[in-house]
């Protein structure tokens, strides 16, 4: 199997495989790759029929393209036979691995909803309350700009960071149905009024100087956007659940005493349930259809007996993440970060809809165009209507 | 007479020996030819073939006729990328040529301080494009970069996030990286110019500026052509630097052809469309190289040291 390098997951994965190999049910070998390098390499390997037995991934559009090309095993009937095993996982995690009612991957790692982070110190200085609704957000923009603090930190150069705003706004305004129609490639699905309104709200926020000056030259991969929040240059940030761990290792004191978090604010008149969330429900393991029967057997044995042992779950929680299994909940209270993990658990397990990140959910062709157009929308280079028509042109591709 | 006879016989002899040598010479070309066919021609044919197919890199390759071509040629993004590629090419040439020529003339002298400066100028040449791009990306960060480090607020611009500004930043970083190489070329070129030319010019009372325009510049003609070819054709391959520095953004403000090809192929998984861009790139590169050769090659036979 191939997995991603980088701590803490690399060690947890290594230990998990080593423990499994001692069980005598077969031997797994694991090789680690860097994130971006892996994404290109795995695709080439799968295309060339050289995939590892277990394929690590993010579910969504890419997994669907593997499934359509019969490159990954259909696990539906196997999961039916092992209902107890299937029941271990958080319910919200299966959606991104299921196409036409067939399941092609098993969730792994942590669940990563997108969260609003706040710098409490800046809120106290400004005498402001955490925002509950979009109107609060717009008022806070003026408050913080008046104090010389940027309202929102944003690593806009990475593009997917800006996209997170659209994901939440569209869900709050139009409900999950709008994106579901897009996902189903219904013609002109992007022209839905909720999409236009989403674009307008974003551009209002940009024009009101809601995002830090120069946001489009800030890259998220260097964590500069997180640094802006904990250094107090920005008061708020919309970011993935993983940013908590990043800030914790960079500024433990800030995270302990000055960080607050909440779900995305509500929007008056919006159709979406305010409990809905967006982000990455999980990472996934698929089994290569090209592997031999023996290899597949060992892989399945690893999934049932090696994945998410008690020790694995403890290790993930200790690293500040929330493993995607139900058994994790009882362990949260005793962890280092009970408050945050409990919040993430409730957010992901009680969300009526957990929308997977758009760039993962859509086909790669659509995702590339999406990121490009999102960027232009934030730069005010295109209108929301133009955004919609550009994206309509990618439907079905 | 004997001498004459042998001279008269000489051409025959040489043509004879050439004929004898022909067969082995052709055989000697063979290994290079095999490699050229295997690693240049066959992939090229493959790319042309791929441009008529639709392939996402995973499923089966299906014939798509001219589908990818019409898709790419109807996409305004393609023309934006072509226009941007040429813009970067021309502006890079306009910036790099005078700078590296003047630097090259300057460091061609023999004083010790010039040698020390020359070493400093050449440092960027030793760094890989990826390292250069990562370093500049950090330096240009509006909140934590050079401006914060040196407390110079005017440096805190939206360097990589402003669609207009980013173009000049890219030109600057490219120049920073490649000017040293071209300086080296010009330094070598200047050192080839015989000192006697300058001595006689001095006797005739020509000043430094006059010497530069009347002697140095004409004598550097072939260096200029070599350097320009490398800058112009090389500009088609600025991919790595721009990819790391801006990723083609903001929006598509720096999405040049080579980057467009990569993103279409490996991010959007449209190998057919990416192959179309690759074919366009090959033609642009070929046309450029041939065009420059023609400009430079017209009086190829003329002596470079006329009058000596």
TrEMBL record, chain B:
CDD domains (alphabetical): TM_PBP2 (cd06261)
Transmembrane portions of the chain: 27-52, 81-108, 115-136, 165-186, 230-251, 271-292
Cell compartment(s), UniProt: Cell membrane
Key word Transmembrane helix present: yes
Primary location recorded for the protein, binned into one broad class: membrane
Family: Belongs to the binding-protein-dependent transport system permease family.
Protein name: Raffinose/stachyose/melibiose transport system permease protein
Organism: Microlunatus panaciterrae
């Amino acid at each position: 199997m191939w997995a991603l390098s980088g701590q803490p997951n690399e060690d947890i994965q290594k230990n998990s495989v080593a423990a499994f190999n001692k069980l005598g049910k077969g031997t797994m070998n694991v090789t680690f790759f860097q994130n971006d390098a892996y994404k290109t390499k795995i695709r080439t390997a799968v295309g060339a029929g050289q995939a590892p037995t277990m394929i690590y991934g993010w579910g969504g559009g890419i997994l669907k393209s593997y499934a359509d090309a019969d490159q990954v095993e259909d696990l539906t009937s196997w999961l039916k036979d092992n209902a107890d095993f299937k029941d271990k996982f958080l319910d919200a995690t299966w959606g991104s691995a299921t196409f036409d009612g067939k399941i092609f991957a098993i969730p792994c790692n942590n669940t990563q909803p997108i969260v609003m982070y706040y710098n409490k110190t800046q809120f106290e200085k400004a005498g402001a309350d955490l925002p509950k609704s979009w109107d609060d957000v717009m008022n806070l923009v003026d408050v913080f700009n008046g104090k010389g603090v940027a309202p929102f930190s944003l690593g806009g150069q990475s593009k997917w960071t800006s996209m997170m705003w659209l994901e939440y706004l569209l869900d709050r305004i139009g409900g999950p149905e709008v994106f579901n129609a897009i996902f189903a490639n219904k013609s002109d699905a992007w022209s839905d009024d909720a999409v236009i309104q989403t674009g307008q709200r974003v551009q209002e926020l940009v024009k009101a100087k809601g995002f830090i000056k120069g946001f489009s030259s800030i890259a998220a991969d260097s964590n500069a956007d997180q640094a802006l929040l904990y250094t107090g240059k920005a008061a708020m940030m919309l970011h993935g659940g993983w940013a908590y761990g990043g800030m914790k290792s960079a500024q433990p004191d800030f995270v302990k005493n000055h960080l607050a978090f909440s779900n995305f604010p509500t929007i008056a008149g919006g159709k979406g349930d305010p409990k809905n969330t967006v982000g990455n429900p999980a990472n996934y393991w698929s089994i290569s259809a090209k592997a031999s029967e023996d290899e597949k057997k060992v892989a399945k044995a690893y999934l049932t007996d090696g994945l998410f042992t008690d020790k694995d779950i403890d290790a993930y929680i200790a690293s500040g993440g929330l493993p995607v299994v139900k058994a994790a909940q009882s362990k949260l209270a005793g962890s280092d970060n009970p408050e945050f993990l409990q919040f993430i658990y409730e957010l992901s397990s009680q969300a009526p809809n957990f929308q997977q990140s758009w760039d993962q959910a859509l086909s790669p062709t659509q995702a590339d165009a999406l990121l490009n157009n999102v960027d232009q929308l934030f730069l005010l280079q295109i209108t929301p209507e133009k955004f919609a028509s550009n994206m309509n042109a990618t439907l079905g591709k | 007479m004997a001498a004459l006879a042998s001279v008269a016989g000489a051409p025959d002899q040489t043509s004879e020996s050439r004929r004898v040598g022909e067969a082995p010479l052709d055989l000697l070309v063979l290994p290079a030819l095999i490699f050229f066919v295997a690693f240049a021609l066959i992939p090229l044919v493959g790319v042309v073939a791929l441009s008529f197919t639709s392939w996402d890199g995973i499923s089966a390759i299906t014939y798509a006729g001219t589908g990818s071509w019409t898709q790419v040629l109807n996409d305004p993004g393609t023309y934006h990328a072509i226009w941007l590629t040429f813009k970067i090419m021309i502006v890079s040439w306009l910036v790099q040529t005078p700078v590296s020529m003047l630097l090259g003339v300057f460091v061609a002298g023999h004083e010790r301080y010039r040698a020390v400066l020359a070493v400093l100028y050449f440092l960027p040449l030793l760094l890989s494009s990826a390292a250069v791009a990562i370093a500049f990306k950090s330096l240009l960060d509006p909140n934590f970069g050079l401006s914060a480090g040196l407390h110079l607020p005017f440096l805190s611009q939206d360097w990589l996030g402003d669609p207009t500004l980013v173009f000049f930043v890219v030109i600057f970083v490219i120049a920073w990286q490649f000017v040293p190489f071209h300086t080296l070329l010009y330094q070598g070129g200047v050192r080839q110019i015989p000192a006697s030319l300058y001595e006689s010019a001095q006797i005739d009372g020509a000043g430094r500026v006059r010497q530069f325009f009347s002697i140095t510049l004409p004598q550097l003609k072939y260096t200029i052509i070599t350097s320009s070819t490398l800058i112009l054709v090389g500009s088609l391959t600025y991919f790595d630097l721009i990819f790391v520095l801006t990723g083609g953004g903001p929006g598509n403000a720096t999405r040049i052809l080579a980057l467009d090809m990569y993103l279409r192929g490996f991010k959007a998984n449209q190998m057919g469309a990416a192959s179309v861009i690759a074919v366009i790139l090959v033609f642009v590169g070929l046309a450029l190289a041939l065009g420059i050769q023609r400009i430079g090659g017209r009086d190829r036979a003329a002596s470079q040291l006329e009058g000596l």
